[in-house]
Design goal:
Two copies of one chain form a homodimer. With 342 residues, chain A is of the alpha+beta class. In chain A, 46% of the residues lie in helices and 18% in strands. Chain A starts with a helix and ends with a helix. The structure holds a DNA duplex (30 and 30 nucleotides).
Chain lengths: 342, 342
DNA sequence: TATTAGCACTCAATCTATTGGAGTGCTAAC
DNA sequence: GTTAGCACTCCAATAGATTGAGTGCTAATA
């Protein structure tokens, strides 16, 4: 048995109705709502077929039908290809270039959450492909050095290095030159261990101290450790009884938002997806995050200049307003894009 | 009518029983549990008095009694003065000096939450009294300067400054000297506007550019904006039906944990309390945070070296195990103290 | 005078029918 | 292939009935 055109229409109508009401939908409703001009009995037959095909589910005998994950998948796929709802206005978002990265991201998360009434997350941009722009060691103390590393896009990292023997100004100057000549202009990936050991050799005399220093610098350079994730609107899950009626589940969800590492997987997966059409939808089990089996997740990859990629995600119930969410995300991406071009 | 010794004993017993069970406690229970050897009828009379005095409440006729906020207050006060439960072990906390501040604080929050089964928060230490240790401007680009500010205790702040006209190395050197001679060794509070304008004057020639630079430095120095607050265990509220049965309230609480600014007030209030015995208990309305009317909050001020003060808080239901929480907090403070002394 | 036993009363919580209605599946007719 | 009709199912809501923990009051007791 295949999905003919009529079945598709009916399935679409069922899901749309369910998204609106959150209640199981019966044959009579569809018979009246759609312009198919079919009696409820006919719809019933078709629904029976759709259930057999796995697109819809009956919570119990004598109840209407609700979409299965497969059904949602059908809906999302056809929706994304066929419809192109004009982009909505994003309320309350004013982006300014000078804003600091973290406050900007926090604000974006909040605006997304309040505009959609779902939970929102946003990851700080990863800058793997970016070039090292500036390295500097300074002495702040007899026994302490400060390493400042600046990457293109003005991402800055600091690291305090404890040294056993005091270094004189000249040594520090030499080290600075050594570091900059070797490393400047390189991307994170181009810096390898061989290079570092070569530098250690060149540094020669103070090898003990210098090894420490270079190690610390290498440590500071490692990018992946500062994948920051900001969330907002976790409280929105309380709007959807199917997510909060079971307290275990609710607690699990809240934990996921609070202990953000788990969301990290979502970020990785979204970024990894190469044939990236921009927006991805995970329904139920499809999401790579434990404890989101009852949710749907819509993610998007944003870009703030070359190589500065991050992930945005909206987490809500399966019956979320996919159209609106997708439209909202698209608006946002546009805004972030213009922001960078300014 | 006053609280005689017997009434106190009964009240104490009622509250303790309620803390254990979470159920309204009746006269018969008290009659059996305590060693007062009084019949339930007598207890009833006493309870009637206690209710009149406002220490306990009857949720409805023919129900047992539960403590009022005033009752809790009595309990906490007598408990804190009389009992000194030996300090419990804190499971899973290994503090190391070299750990970065933010990961340290996150871990402390998590350990507190898992040890107590309540929600925990911890604020980054405020360093008002700390001295400026090191300031440096560097050029990272024709049009961009990087300001690095280090404060005693190795708190580091960066700020990228855009300048219209390129500065030559000499100017930057001069600026560095100017900044360091004027500001080094000063506390945040000792730096005032008069001083800054004096510096602007001295800088003289490049006044336009220099004004920008000094403004940016002043901006970066402002301490209050980086009051970071870390939370953990928000999900624990689901353990206590009285906090989550009403979804509105639950949602409000979760929001408070997620949007951490509100917790900031708690931090301010705790730090402000001068006659600080170390640990404070807020019951219901007493807490300065909206949306915690059904909660109790236990806060403590920790100190990591002179002037580096921060706030720890445990948020749970009113019927929390105050003794355990207080003991746990005390252990923690000890550990933080030893950590600093190392 | 303080304490207690005894009893009537109250009220939330729990259980048990009972009912109404939304919805289905099936069959027979169109 | 479509539809009307009907018996059937099952949830959800409602209304009693029942239970039990707990109270307040009174009268007896130490």
């Amino acid at each position: 048995m295949e999905l003919d055109e009529r079945k598709k229409k009916i399935l679409y109508a069922i899901i749309q109705n369910y998204l609106e009401t959150g209640e199981p939908v019966g044959s009579r409703t569809i018979s009246k709502y759609t312009d198919l001009n079919l009696s409820s009995a006919t719809i019933r037959n078709e629904m029976s077929d759709l259930e057999e095909l796995g697109y819809i589910i009956q919570p119990h005998t004598s109840a209407g039908r609700i979409p299965s994950d497969k059904g949602y998948r059908f809906y999302v796929d056809t929706m994304l290809t066929e419809k192109e709802r004009e982009v909505e206005e994003l309320k309350g978002l004013l982006l300014e270039k000078d804003e600091k990265m973290d406050t900007l991201l926090k604000r974006v998360a909040r605006v997304l959450a309040t505009n959609t009434n779902y939970a929102a997350m946003i990851s700080s941009p990863q800058y793997h492909r970016n070039k090292l722009k500036f390295i500097q060691l300074s002495r702040i103390d007899a026994r302490q050095l400060l390493a400042v590393i600046v990457v293109e896009g003005n991402v800055i990292k600091n690291s305090v290095i404890n040294v056993e023997d005091a270094l004189d100004d000249e040594t520090i100057l030499k080290l600075n030159i050594l570091l900059n000549t070797h490393l400047n202009g390189l991307t994170m990936e181009e810096i390898n261990l061989g290079m570092i050991s070569a530098m250690k050799q060149q540094a020669g005399i103070h090898s003990e101290v210098i090894a420490d220093v270079i190690d610390a610098v290498a440590e500071a350079i490692k990018a992946d450790e500062d994948l920051e994730i900001y969330t907002s609107g976790a409280n929105n899950i309380f709007r959807y009884p199917e997510l909060t009626d079971n307290k275990e589940r609710a607690s699990e969800l809240i934990t996921t938002f609070e202990e953000k590492q788990m969301l990290g997987e979502l970020v990785q997966e979204t970024l990894a997806d190469e044939n990236n059409t921009g927006i991805q939808v995970y329904i139920g089990d499809e999401a790579p995050v434990e404890g989101m089996k009852d949710c749907s997740v819509v993610t998007a990859t944003y870009e703030l200049g070359e190589g500065m990629k991050g992930t945005i995600g909206i987490i809500g119930p399966k019956r979320m307003d996919y159209e609106k969410v997708v439209a909202t995300l698209k608006t946002l991406m546009n805004q972030l894009d213009t922001l960078y071009k300014k």
